Every structure is written in structure tokens, then in C-alpha cells.
Amino acid sequence: MKRYFLLLILLLSLAVLIPAGAETYELGDTADDFTITTVEGETLSLSGLLSSHKAVLINFWFINCSWCEYEFPYLQQAYEKMGNEVAVLALSPYDSEEDIRAYQQSMNLTFPMAQDTAGLSERFGCTGYPTTVMIDRHGVYCFSHSGAITSESAFLRLMKPFAAEDYASSLVGFEIPPVQPSATMPPAENMALALNSNGSDIAYSTLDGAWPWLLKEEDGRSYAYSSNSGEDSTSAVLHASFTASKGDVLAFDYAVSSTVQDDFFALFINEEPVKVFSGERAWQSYAYALAQDGTYEIDFAYLKNNALSGGNDTAFIDNVRLLSGQEAQEALDLNPSWPQTAQGNAAFDVLNEDARPVVIDDPSGTLSSYYPGAGFYLVPGTELELRVRIGKDVDAEAASLYSFYDGSQQTLDTLKTDETGFLVTLPSDSLETTGYPWSALVVYPYFNDYETIAPLFWFASEADLDSFCQSSIAENVTAAWKYADEKVMYTLRFTDEAGAPLAGVIANICDESTCMPLVSDENGVISFENVPYPYDVHVIRVPEGYAFDPSKPYTAPLLGGEMQFTFPQSNAQ
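The structure assignment produced for this chain is given below.
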């Protein structure tokens, strides 16, 4: 499923007018009554819904939100089972009534849908979409979840406590409970025997609340496998404990068949994740060197973020063993290695010969706020040729690359490599081909970390880049761009309060690594030409008799332009 949506709407909401005096709700507040007219012409109010239902679930969404589209079938399934007890209302702050009606019909959704004409998305503090809130029978705002709820089971586990006959006190701050395990772990001695580790003094157990690992024999191999396949927000954990010496190695065989960056097979040592695998991996071995003498607590965990499943949606382990001496070193030598040449977490080398870096001045601040450190390139043609470089702390078997073109995601270790990094070729969107003026990718360097990202945007033509700046970043905002290697002019004007020019002002012009002191001429002007950059401007001296604050920094316009500085006389303070 291709994730096409406005850049801003990908991660935050746009402004919706709030009635004068209205404030954002906090969990535990009693919600004010409201009235909404659905796309079918029915008028609904909170008080009316609560008079006929035990709770109200409000889902905030919009048409071009792919995760909204992903979760709607699950909400529909839950609504068909619980709709008589829990009212469901889907509100879009952005879409027209006509478009919502067509969308509802195309998705076969039967719960009420409407425009958010009451500004409820703002009142409930929506910062991302979809967002689901729950109001209980007392009118109390009890629950909020930003992001897709990705199974019918999860929606039912949300609804049922609020519909309970014995519901009394409001469940403020309610969290959706996980699915309870449906199986128990085999006896520990059976697990040790199956994993061939009964001679290594490794004791096995499971954790309270976690799903167990179960045993299976297949193709002459006995192994353990995670039992939580298909169950959202669950963990299957096989716990092991043993005593080892410094330099010993824990080795095991494993396989995993899962969704990249959604579900993980992870090795925890003393509660710290030390190795992570996801995607499709046939049986192979991994070895981990133990750093000191002592007792170790180990968890083999299959972690499911949501109900989205890939492959068998299962992790497998076998042949768990403690090694020392030459055997330990040989096991470590079998671990894969990758080029790790970036100074930080991740960096990009665009390899297309005719590619040019660009700089975008976004007055809304969306790009810098939600995609800090993003690179922007003009890349003519239909493909991007890219090298991804990672830092020394990044594990290529856990780090992944997500393409906005088709929603595909792959771990970096599955890509071809050269001596510097990982090589990938990705198709480009354009107005001429797919109708979309921009392409993007994101590298997630770390396991289960969706905030530490490395983003890259590219454009097939200047026309596409113009369109992106004019309509794709934020509503009613026009950005500007220039080539990053093309110099632009910066002009700083210094005057007194009467407008007379001040000669002899010294200002330091600084980028990330250097500062350049310049002096204003007889016209009170400093001019310099350089590549686009938000240079820091520090005034370090003014003519005698004038006051200034040497600690106050200024920022030059990103794409060049003028800055005005006015200094009062010191005796006028």
C-alpha cells in the first residue's frame, strides 16, 4: 500500500478553529456536549449518543492517511460486534462532506462519519493521525491513542471494559490490555533437551504475562518457536540463566520470518537488547561474547508491535550453547560484518551523476521539526542511485530503509555493499509519471526507535520541486529553494535609530565549523556571497557611543537576502 499524503499531515495536524474560550481536554476532563451532522444527514450529539450507548469512541482521520485506511477494516469489524453498546464516530478535520461520503462507500464502512466541524481534533489534542479517543458513560474523557490500532481484537479489548455492566468509576488513562497467552511453556527439562543445551547448565523459564515458546520437531531438528503469531502488542519470551566467565560466548541457531521494522526477534542480556533480527532469515548461527565473569539473565524475545504480519510471523531458536577458547572465537568469526563509515548514525551518498543537492527554506518549520537533518536533491530521471552509510554503533541487521514510493521496507544487511556502505536503487515519483512531485526515504538506524531517523527527499525536475514547495509541505505555506552549491548574496545593514548608516560595525559570520569577521563599510553595509546556509551572525563591536548586546545571536536568511540592525545611542538607555 503506497503511503501518499501531504508531508505535514504525515506527522501532525493542521490548524482547526476552536470555539472562543475552548481549551484542550486533559484525560479525566468531562467532555462538553457537541453536535455533528454525518455525511448521511443525521445529526448526532454527545449527549444523544451517551443516552443510547455505554461509551463513545471517536476516531480522527483523513482520506490520504494510509494508516487510517489500514485500521478502518478492524474498526468496522469491532463496530459490527459492539456498535449497539459503544457508539463509533469517525471525524475528518480536512476532507469535504462529498469526499468523506465517497470514501465511506468505497471502504464499506457503516459507522457514522462526518466533517470535524466542531473542532474536536484540536480539543482532544490530536498531534497525529489516526487518533482514537474514548468517552465513557459519565461523559469523561478516559482514553487517547495516536497511531493505528491494528487488529479487531485490540479494538474489542478497548471497547469491552467501557461497556461492562458493572462499570462504575471512570477508567481514566486506560490502556488497551494485551492478549493473554493461550499456551504454557513445556517443562524446562524438555526445553533444554530440545535445544541441546541440557549439558551447558542453562536453566529455562518464561516470564509472567509473556507468551511462551513451544517445541516442535521437523526435518530432523528439534527447536523452540514463539507462540504469539498474529497477536498484536505481545511478547513471546524464553528466559535463560547461566553462569559464565569473561570471554565465553553464548551461541545459538535461529531463524525468523516477520515484518521488517514492525516485529522483531531480539536477544536481551541482563535486560538490555544486544541483538535484533527481523524480516526473512533462514536458519543460521549467531554468537555473542560475554564481557565479564558472573551470572547472566538472557531473554529470547519475539516482539510484535501490531497485528500486521509477514511470512510465518514467528521466531525460531535451536542449539543454544556456551563456548570458550578456540570454539568461542570460531563462532564469533562466523558473525557477519558490514562497512560502518558514517560519523553519526547514518549518512547518504547520492550516486546519480547529474544529481544536485538543494536547500529548502520552509517558513512553516515542518521540515526542520519533523525531518531534522534531511537531505534534499534534484535527481533527473526515474531512479535514485544511493549509498547508505552507517555509524559504528548501528547494526545493519536491525537498521531498515523505508521507501515512500511503495511503502516497502528492508533491513540494510539485505542490500548490496561496497567498501563504504549499502547500495540501493529506488524508483522516483514525479508529476509526469505517478502524479506526485516528490520522493522520499527514511533510514531507521536503531531497533524500535521511530524518532532517530535519517530522511532523504528527492525530485525528478525543477517543476516537481517547485510544486513540492508550493503545495506539499503545509497548508497555505509556500517554501522556496536554491541549489546548495550555488552561491547567494547576503546583505547586512547597520544604522542608528535615525536611519543613518553606521560604519565600522564588526560582525562574525559563522557556519558549523568556522567564523568570518567582517566590517561594515561607509554605507553601514556588510555584503558577502556564499552557499545557502542559516549563518549565525554575532555583532562583536559597534562604533563608540552606541549600545548593543554581544550575547544576542542572529540568524541569516537561509537562501540569502537582507538583514537590518538598528543600534540606539548608549546615553539614550
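Interim note for the steering committee: The two ends are 64 Å apart (CA to CA). DSSP finds ten helices and 35 strands in the chain.
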